[in-house]
Design brief:
mainly alpha; globular; 81% helix
Length: 214
């Protein structure tokens, strides 16, 4: 079952990359999510090559210790920028904002590699940020016109489902990885399913945007 969900995630990320590149000029405000889908596709291909084809799962795990934290930081920054931009009524200086989040990313990397792993901190931060902004979005849903209600709907809902599936999984995984590793074989599909839902929601958002306002 877990392998089936992994392939579903791979195909979802590939289609997301395809649509993102095809309509790149028309999806300016969500281009960061295309970067996430590209990175996820590369990670999946690396897993399939090292763990499945070459049967060197140990090599993949060693590599993922370095790549996972980088991916999580980029994921947090992309999602945070997107949610802040769609929830602020005033325009922000995107250049200054990106300089700030780049500095934050570098600080997180230094902390991670010099002192301790911050995976859980990032995941919990994502959980809090996405839930707060998603709830705020839905509370103001009926105060908007039809066009504004449709705008970002697919991606907001996808992010909400994604984080509330993958964050608990990640927390559980970190607690049982050394005590009961065999349990991971039964719950790994949760992470793959969560990311599949995220990529599918990005694809739906792209299709809606190219048909309407961007």
């Amino acid at each position: 079952m877990s392998v089936g969900f992994r392939f579903m995630m791979v195909f979802a990320s590939i289609f997301c990359v395809y649509f993102g590149i095809k309509y790149f000029q028309k999806i300016k405000s969500i281009r960061g999510f295309i970067l996430l889908s590209i990175l996820s596709s590369l990670d999946s291909f690396t897993y399939l090559y090292l763990a499945i084809i070459k049967e060197e799962k140990g090599s993949f795990l060693i590599l993922s210790n370095y790549t996972q934290i980088i991916y999580l930081i980029i994921e947090l920054l992309v999602i945070t920028e997107y949610l802040i931009r769609i929830n602020l009524t005033k325009k922000i200086d995107i250049f200054q904002f990106r300089i700030s989040i780049t500095l934050i990313a570098l600080i997180l990397l230094v902390i991670n590699f010099l002192y301790f792993r911050i995976d859980l901190l990032i995941i919990i931060s994502e959980l809090i940020i996405i839930n707060i902004f998603s709830i705020n979005y839905h509370l103001s849903f009926y105060n908007k016109n039809k066009h504004e209600r449709e705008k970002n709907k697919y991606l907001i809902n996808g992010l909400f489902i994604f984080i509330n599936m993958t964050a608990p999984y990640y927390i559980i995984q970190n607690n049982i990885e050394s005590n009961a590793p065999y349990i991971l074989n039964y719950i790994n599909f949760i992470n793959d399913l969560g990311y599949s839902i995220l990529f599918i929601s990005i694809i739906k958002e792209i299709k809606w945007r190219i048909q309407t306002y961007e």
